[in-house]
Design goal:
Blueprint: H1 3-6, E1 33-38, E2 43-47, E3 53-56, E4 59-62, E5 73-76, E6 82-86, H2 90-96, H3 106-115, E7 123-127, H4 133-142, E8 147-152, H5 155-168, E9 180-184, H6 187-194, E10 198-203, H7 212-218, E11 219-229, H8 232-245, E12 252-254, E13 261-264, E14 267-270, E15 280-285
Parallel strand pairs: 7-8, 7-10, 8-9, 10-11
Antiparallel strand pairs: 1-2, 1-6, 3-4, 5-6, 11-15, 12-15, 13-14
Helix pairs in contact: 3-4, 6-7
Bound molecules: S-adenosylmethionine.
GO cellular component, one term: tRNA (m1A) methyltransferase complex
Function: Catalyzes the S-adenosyl-L-methionine-dependent formation of N(1)-methyladenine at position 58 (m1A58) in tRNA.
Keywords: Methyltransferase, S-adenosyl-L-methionine, Transferase, tRNA processing
Length: 327
Amino acid sequence: MSEHDQHPSQPVDDVPQEAWSGVHRGPLRAGEWVRLVDGKGRKHNFALEAGKRFFSNRGHLDHDELIGREEGFTVTTSGGGDYLVFRPLLSEFVVSMPRGAAVIYPKDAAQIVAMADIFPGARVVEAGVGSGALTCSLLRAVGPQGRVSSYERREEFAEVARRNVDQFFSAPEGSSHPAWTLTLGDLAEALPASGERCDRIILDMLAPWECLSAAADALVPGGIVCAYVATTTQLSRFVETVRAHGGFTEPHAWESLVRDWHVEGLAVRPDHKMIGHTAFLVTARRMAPGERPPRKTRRPAPGAYGPDYTGPRPPDVPQEPVAPADE
Ligand SMILES: C[S@@+](CC[C@H](N)C(=O)[O-])C[C@H]1O[C@@H](n2cnc3c(N)ncnc32)[C@H](O)[C@@H]1O
């Protein structure tokens, strides 16, 4: 039996729909998104529509000229502008799709998938869904046999996310990726109410410490909680809340900096521009019920939990007596 016979409803060479990868092969079709890039690196993303025209500052281009061709070609507009044509990659789609809330950038999504150990078949909880950027990476990593339960408390963001995720995975009208559920509500209340158990929990929200207790109850022993926070004050509060909870391993906090390079003949050097800051990441593993991580043998740095420290306190770090004020 040929590949075509196995999937008679699909064009030759396409990735089987049941893979839910968001990737298509073969000729470009109406309804698919394409990405046009000009010589200066300017990008235009749009859905192909028979009979429609794309306009740029260098004239126009009929979509019909693109439909039916294999991606990876150059087209010229009526005004002489050359554009490279490809289907957008996941990393390109998420930075160009419509946004409700700020998205997790590909450099951080990649860290989350690797360091929070998202695997095919995993049961993952994420909140908030925001614009659905991380959701696309999570769904791709767990595959159709896994589960991604996304929670979002703002209906308008949930709607944006649903459109983006369905668009990326080319979900047929009225359906979504089979591994995905999207629940409207606050994770701290909706997750316990669901009774859901999971392997991984990703928190991307202003106050992830408010959801730690719900996350701890839902995670299986050995499961991972991962938080993505933009500021050092959030980082500190989340890490200390994890320590104070006592049912997790010592949190690991880090950030990723990606620097592009200019490589041209003898001019080989870092790019002048880079994304200086997105957010910090923290992971910790869930201990088995009733178990505690070993006591730290290293004492906290002097003053780390001194009188000026007002945040959550690790169980084995007593409050330091406040020194009497000088007369
Ligand atoms: C920065 S956005 C998430 C972006 C998303 N990760 C992405 O890559 O597109 C943060 C979202 O968390 C939602 N949120 C904040 N606290 C929440 C909570 N306790 N439960 C559910 N959603 C929450 C906000 O409404 C917002 O949409």
